[in-house]
User: Fold this.
Amino acid sequence: MTFVAYDWPNNVCGPATWISRLLPDLHRFGITPRCLVMCWEQTGPLLAALQNSGVECESILCEGSTESRIDWIINQLADHPAHVFVPNLVVPALHAAAIVRQSGISTVGVLHSDDSFYRAVCDVFATGRKSDALTDLVCVSRQIEEQTTRMNVVNTAIHRIPYGVPIPKSVVRNSKGGLRIAYVGRLAEEQKRISEVTRALCRASIEIPGTMATIFGDGPDRHNVERILSENKPSSNVKLAGRVDNVEIQDKLLDFDVIVLLSDYEGLPIAILEAMACGVVPVCLQMNSGIPELVEHNVNGLVVSNRKDSFVDAIRKLHDDRLLLKRLSIAARARIENENSVAINTQRWSDMLKRITDGKTTTKSLKRPLQYNLPAVHPSLAAEDYRAAERHFLLRLYSCSRRLTGKLKKKIIRLTNERQGQ
Assistant:
């Protein structure tokens, strides 16, 4: 299997965490993974983690056009043939998959979230031109699967495989003292609403004595978090801990009672999975994807209706009722053990990969075409789809010349017929 992934400095996003665990574990099932890593600016922690785990990798900086990146991917696959190609969420790799599929190689995209980017992936690579269709799509949540199934998907098989996370061997918590809350994720306004989350944590820590909160993560709007924390000092008991490596985050989470996620939307949030595996109780905003199938209100966590009164009331409830906190903690850990461990996730991927290859041992040789017949740039994918302007110009010139030649031929034939008639 050849997988494609993005990486960058301080990359701690959920899909990267998942890849760093899945690929090394596939060896146990007789699958040899290889990863093509496309790096923004420079290499990051994903490439290092995969290499340290013994996964064969090749990397390239994200420079040049979409076409040049497709060239690199096709050359890599030509030199190192694969039975399965997983372009994942990488746009140039998704375009390359159309060429790869012609060689009899299964191509598998992954839908990690419920947003415009992934809906565009479906529009182009599942319901668009038949020649661009992936052979398979993996959805990480039930909502994404149902949403994708409702689309006019004809040439692509749809699968649901939730993420998997490690299960700590033991969970021992200090039942005394205040309530300890964690936020783990990108510090971004889009989707994560990090300013509102920070204000909510500050309010809870002020209104509920003994409540402490720590924000783990980094991102483009870190300055907003720092500003809000500065404005609330010394009244609040909230601190910013910054980025934590993927391999360390569960050790940190073992010291907390509650994890919060108040995003606008998610896929299947890995931070919540990791925390629940540690027995940390999730308090999440009600949303369409991921949370409804993961967090059952008052059974293994709490679901709130807003980032203000509803959230603070939930935190107060857990602070005041330690028996409830313990019951939710036990149920949260059991939920992940039974449905979302790394072992279960890898088994599901192994089963799917072996099923779609169906004993296939050889594929046709892979060759780069003289020119790419790419679909039009989708607006929601444009940020990662840099077409070669000069190549477009040459293609337009070639197309224009063909049209002019055709018109000229028709005119010559018409004139010839007229002269013969005379």
Remarks:
- Confidence is low (pLDDT under 50) at residues 390-399.
- The chain has three domains: 2-164+343-384, 179-340, 392-422.
- The domain at 179-340 is CATH 3.40.50.2000 (Rossmann fold).
